[in-house]
Amino acid sequence: MVDEVWQMEFDRTPMPSPYNDLPFLIFEELVPKDECKQVIESFKKSDFKARLRGGGLNEAMRKTTLLEVTSKAREIFEGAIQKVKEQIERFYNISLFGGSQIQALYYKDGGFYHCHADNASRLEKDGTLVGYKIIAPKRKVTTLLFLNDDFEGGELEFCHLRYFDGSKVIIEPKAGSLVSFASHPIFAHEVKPVKGERYALVKWWEGF
Questions:
Q1: What is the pTM of this model?
Q2: CATH, residue 166
Q3: Residue 54 has pLDDT above 60, yes or no
Q4: Which residues contact 1 (CB under 8 A, 6 or more apart)?
Q5: Which helix (H) or strand (E) holds 86?
């Protein structure tokens, strides 16, 4: 963990038990690759494609596209969550409910997303991070399903986490794998620049 982040004031719930090997969960090969391909094909047949936040996207911060969540995408994602929901709840000692609509994120060649938290805005002074302001308090847990891995780059890197040897915590996208982590700034993260096309589904959960 990067020590400076612990000095910043923001809500740190939920936090996983310190007795876990890692502070996040990875479910590899949760969804068969052929089903992931079916979801991607359903995107390609859809006409809806929009920049995030209705065109107000700051492309210095992120360059990504929001796709229509097709019925196939919803079916596959909800089926995957049902397989692991209880395990996620035990991991964070929280009951998941409600939450956001599923989002389908598409990073075309050159796409990226700089360091950000899923429920907070970065506070900077002279270009230096000085804190976070929680703006989406209902977002407690993030669930992210990778749909493909036939591209270069696009890794998920946690900005404020480190392994015991000091190395960065980086997750390589694998088609059909799902990652779950707390949505608050301890788990702020970035998507490295993509060479090719990267597809993923994400949902943020409420909890108590």
A1: 0.94
A2: 2.60.120.620
A3: no
A4: 160, 161, 162, 186
A5: helix 71-92
